[in-house]
Amino acid sequence: MSDDENQFEQGNAGSSHTYTESAGSLKKGGYVMLKGHPCKITDVSTSKAGKHGHAKASIVGKDIFTNKTYEDSAPTSHNIDVPFVTKKEYTLMDIQGDGFVILMNEDGSTKEDLKLPETEDDFKLVQEIREMFDAGKDLLISVLSAMGEEKIVGSREAQDK
């Protein structure tokens, strides 16, 4: 057997997009799955246990991809799904006419499957990216990933090394 045959692709193939956490331990600013959507928690409140019940956590959050607000409640002792959320920066290489961007990874490989966000909430961000790119500035683009989806969520000017 050669060394090449023993190398395996590293990654999260087959792994879950979520993990569980006690509803009572969720905090504002964290992430949670509400009604099947990955959300950033904007408010968490707990009510005291009733005569026959459990203490409940009321959770309000905004979908990290659409910005739509979702609410849910669960007993604080129960587990609730929390999405694995990652944020990664790429160098912006080009903006295509159809809104797709060409991004470069740290290893030099390119990523061409992301489009500039098109929601009203992201108008200012997109305008900022286009203006800075058109001015010839080197930009780093922040991409949020969760549940197999990705979205451009920020940008900043690259610093010279």
TrEMBL record:
Family annotation (InterPro entries): IF5A-like, IF5A-like_N, IF5A_C
Residue spans of biased composition, Polar residues class: 8-21
Post-translational modification: eIF-5A seems to be the only eukaryotic protein to have a hypusine residue which is a post-translational modification of a lysine by the addition of a butylamino group.
Keywords associated with the record: Hypusine, Protein biosynthesis
CDD domains, per the entry: S1_eIF5A
GO BP field: positive regulation of translational elongation; positive regulation of translational termination
Domain Translation initiation factor 5A C-terminal: 84-156
Any one GO molecular-function label of the UniProt entry: translation elongation factor activity
Pfam families, sorted: eIF-5a, IF5A-like_N
Disordered: annotated span: 1-21
Task performed by this protein: Translation factor that promotes translation elongation and termination, particularly upon ribosome stalling at specific amino acid sequence contexts. Binds between the exit (E) and peptidyl (P) site of the ribosome and promotes rescue of stalled ribosome: specifically required for efficient translation of polyproline-containing peptides as well as other motifs that stall the ribosome. Acts as ribosome quality control (RQC) cofactor by joining the RQC complex to facilitate peptidyl transfer during CAT tailing step.
Family of this protein: Belongs to the eIF-5A family.
PANTHER family (alphabetical): TRANSLATION INITIATION FACTOR 5A FAMILY MEMBER
Name of the protein: Eukaryotic translation initiation factor 5A
Organism: Paramecium octaurelia
